[in-house]
Amino acid sequence: MITPNHKAPLTFASIELDAGLKAALAKPRSDLIAEVTASQLKGRGGAGFPTGVKWNLAAAAQADVKFVICNADEGEPGTFKDRVILTDHADLVFEGMTIGGYAIGSNTGILYLRGEYTYLRPHLDAVLAARRQKGLLGKNVAGKQGFDFDIEIRMGSGAYVCGEETALIESLEGCRGEPRNRPPFPVDTGFNNKPSIVNNVETFAWVTCILVKGSAWFKAIGTQRSTGLKIMSVSGDCAQPGIYEFPLGITIAKMLEAVGGVGAKAVQIGGASGQCIPASEFNRTIAYEDVSTGGAIIVFGPHRDMLAVARNFLEFFVEESCGQCTPCRDGNPKLLEGVELLEQGRCSMRYLNELASLGETMQVASKCGLGQSSPNAFLSIIKNFKGEVMGRTQGETH
Amino acid sequence: MLVTDQERLKSDIGKWLERYGRDRSALIPVLQEIQKKYSRISEYGMQVVADQLGIHPVEVYSVVSFYSFLDHKPKGKFVIRLCRTISCDMQGKARVAQQLKSDLGIDFGETTRDGKFTLEWANCLGMCDQGPAMLVNDVVYTRVTPAMVHDILEACRKTFGVYALESKHEEGHA
Ligand SMILES: Cc1cc2nc3c(=O)[nH]c(=O)nc-3n(C[C@H](O)[C@H](O)[C@H](O)COP(=O)(O)O)c2cc1C
Ligand code: SF4
Ligand code: FES
User: Fold this and answer.
1) How far apart (Å, rounded) are the C-alpha atoms in residues A338 and A332?
2) What's the CATH fold of domain B78-173?
3) Structure pTM?
4) Which one of A194, A311, A314, B58 has the fewest beta carbons within 10 angstroms of its own beta carbon?
5) Inter-chain Cβ pairs, chain A and chain B, closer than 8 A
6) What pLDDT, on a 0 to 100 scale, did the predictor assign at position B5?
7) Do A235 and B87 touch (CB under 8 A)?
8) Contact call for residues A318 and A280 (beta carbons, < 8 A)
9) CA of A115: which chain B residue's CA is closest?
10) ipTM surpassing 0.90, yes or no?
């Protein structure tokens, strides 16, 4: 049984349904995008691109057909917020997609749902059917003459890399999920070569909230460069794992207090692609300008072996690399071999330094975000936990 | 494969192509349907899809081989996928894995001889706050303990039909 793990009601629960859509449809398109831009909402999927800017580009693109794509591939280890949002607040997400359709001039939305969430499909189909019934999807949406919009669901098939927006589009087009070079960006050449906005589930839900409560409300929360609230998926060694809503800019220490994780030795922020922050840096903040994240927080208690953590993440990347480019395809197995040497206590400092520079090369030379971020955890663990990972005797763990 | 089986597959593919549209973007939805109903995507199936979409069978094969939920080798009626990623790892997935291996008598990556079960590893299933997590076909099990393994397998053994464990919406709504 899946239990809803909410520690406190989310803002989403207080939003009047369809108020955001109606407010959006009452505005001229340019005002609507200006409102989203003014909130300074940044993408909640991890990369943090300003949503208003993305929508503006897609709105300006000239094309007969455009697409609104919701990225529900949620594969980053440690992330499960989109699952909860789709379970409890699917209407807000579909509303946000509809608002996006109106904003950029699109008639078609696609929700790309990861295969692992197939069990959610009947629920989501039912929500969509109810919206059609109420006239909130289909012809003349919510009575707005000339605005037709509908949403279909497409399933993923068990490939993490398909969460990367260009790989997702490849997959929608019936191909292997191999990321493309960017630029060009999906706002110009997206699905079927048509201008497309790809946004995260949570991003769409916040757009709806912003249309209800106003951009000023959103902007007043958080920091100057990281406005608004963020849903975090918290797991690992803490008393109360689950979903939390925090203002951006919160310190790691404060967050640990809220989740019952005080005394942790490290926190992985941003999932396998993120950074491993040691206790000495718990005064840092979760924000785009400091420790940035799509919302995955994994807490490591004092007894955890950080080398085992690095191994688990690298195994993940070795398996999920699409194999298209050399730094990622060959680099990750090399780093994993390095972890094995460290486990056996047979890694010289010189070799460790070589591995670190390999990791840095991967960060700059890989083709997509997967390869660029895959060394992050390894690099931060060997940097912050040198004493723990070096000089091991056979069979020793921490 | 018997001729009648091939005909059945061919007519199913035709039906699915009607539903998803006869262009390349229908490829993966159709392959997903084949996988679900036939527990594999055979060479014959790939050939039919390729012919219908006007693409080379190698293209279809390269897509099938890319996605971990699509497979050209036969899989068991119940595909068990245990999460091995960090949060489930910290919550004791190793012992669940051991129990699954003992109760099924197979290793990860294998299928039982009676064709009922395939055991696989999965990466993060998005249930990290309630691990160890496991998928049996589309159904999610959370907080799995070694002691629960037997009952889960028995529940599968008692169900018949391909869609036996499909999409039961179990999540509580808050
Ligand atoms: C390997 C990889 C996996 C990704 N997975 C996801 C994902 O599961 N969900 C998501 O929203 N974004 C994911 N992204 C980011 C997307 O490429 C894209 O930036 C995002 O969907 C844009 O939406 P946003 O601006 O609303 O965040 C991933 C990126 C990479 C490189
Ligand atoms: S970085 Fe990795 S996942 Fe991305 S394109 Fe290169 S090989 Fe593929
Ligand atoms: S780590 Fe197992 S479900 Fe996320």
Assistant:
1) 10
2) Glutaredoxin (3.40.30)
3) 0.95
4) B58
5) 156
6) 86
7) yes
8) no
9) B69
10) yes
